[in-house]
Design goal:
Helix content is 34%, strand content 25%. The protein is an alpha+beta fold. It has 2 domains: 3-136, 60s Ribosomal Protein L30, Chain: A; 151-297, PurM-like C-terminal domain (Phosphoribosyl-aminoimidazole Synthetase, Chain A, domain 2). A 6-stranded mixed beta sheet has the order 8-10-7-11-9-12, sandwiched between helices. A 4-stranded mixed beta sheet has the order 3-6-4-5, covered by helices on one side. Strand 4, helix 3 and strand 5 form a beta-alpha-beta unit. The structure holds magnesium ion.
Length: 309
């Protein structure tokens, strides 16, 4: 099977989105934007042994490659529309590609997003997805809008993925629920879209709350005080901390793909309504000030969020 047959067999799904004028098969894809829309583009790579273990399931790898990109679209308050896939494979293993393709297709159908192109090459296993979305002009959520006095919030619970990863690395067996948090995080698309006009800034937590919130502070030229006592934690993270006192898991552990955002006092009511309509737990963990530093009450350990280099 050559590269073109591989694409034809596993990745040339039927396209239903009428905004796509030309999908897979030409030199590039074509799609039309409506008036008043901006295109939002983001890309993320997942590499074997860096982002997933050597024996990870192809279905989980496909799922996470898509979610990490969807999460960035969510953090912008945009709706996801199209994606391209650059797949580097060490060899053609039909069972592996079949399972990968099936999982990718299922999740993209669920989110109503279309695969519109890509590339396949031979080499160490590597998946790069470029995701495109749309947002109303000038309405995207940026990192740069946080102002003094705004509350700092996170969605869901934090630290679950990092705890699962720690257990795997320590040779322990995580529960099914813990594995799901690591392998199949949920992109907060509905929340992200609803936060437009409510939040003053937003980011998704991919590398660790401490580092990702710091990106907001830097971009907004502000500081913040957060308190670990306020962190929303699952039962497993809570019991881990009770035993180890190790707050670095929810603070610096990445991979949760929850949203961290800031909301002015005047929008608190709108936020509560949004939390109810999305059926999503949202927790205030601190507030923005003008100190230009991140103060973390209840924590004096290392600030060791994930860094590639
Ligand atoms: Mg991000």
């Amino acid at each position: 099977m050559n590269e073109f047959e591989l694409i034809q067999s596993y990745f040339n799904w039927s396209i239903k989105d009428p905004s796509i004028a030309l999908g897979i098969g030409d030199d590039a894809a074509l799609f039309s934007l409506k008036d008043g829309q901006q295109l939002v583009t983001t890309t993320d790579t997942l590499s074997e042994s860096v982002h997933f273990f050597k024996d990870a399931l192809p279905s989980d790898i496909a799922y996470k490659s898509l979610v990490v990109n969807l999460s960035d679209i969510a953090a912008m308050g945009a709706s996801a529309k199209y994606f391209t896939l650059a797949l580097t494979l060490p060899k053609i293993n039909h069972d592996w590609i079949e399972e990968f393709s099936k999982s990718l297709r299922q999740l993209s159908e669920y989110h109503k997003i279309s695969l519109i192109g890509g590339d396949t090459t031979k080499g160490p296993l590597n998946i790069t997805i470029t995701m495109m979305g749309v947002v109303e002009t000038s309405r995207a959520l940026l990192r740069s809008g946080a102002g003094t006095g705004d509350g700092v919030y996170v969605s869901g619970t934090i630290g679950d993925a990092a705890l699962c990863l720690k257990k795997l690395r320590d040779g322990l067996v995580p529960s099914k629920g813990e594995l799901l948090k690591l392998n199949r995080p949920t992109p907060r698309l509905e929340l992200g879209m609803g936060l437009k006009g409510v939040a003053s800034s937003c980011i998704d937590i991919s590398d660790g709350l401490e580092q990702d919130l710091s990106h907001i502070l830097m971009a907004s030229d502000v500081g913040a005080v957060i308190d670990v006592k306020n962190f929303p934690l699952s039962e497993s993270v809570l019991s881990y901390i009770k035993n180890n006192g190790d707050w670095s898991i929810p603070l610096c552990g990445g991979d949760d793909y929850e949203l961290c955002f800031t909301v002015p006092e005047s929008n608190k009511k709108a936020l509560k309504i949004l939390s109810q309509s999305c059926n999503m737990d949202i927790t205030k963990i601190g507030h923005i000030d003008d100190s230009r530093v991140l103060k973390i009450d209840g924590y004096d350990g290392a600030r060791n969020s994930y860094q590639h280099f």
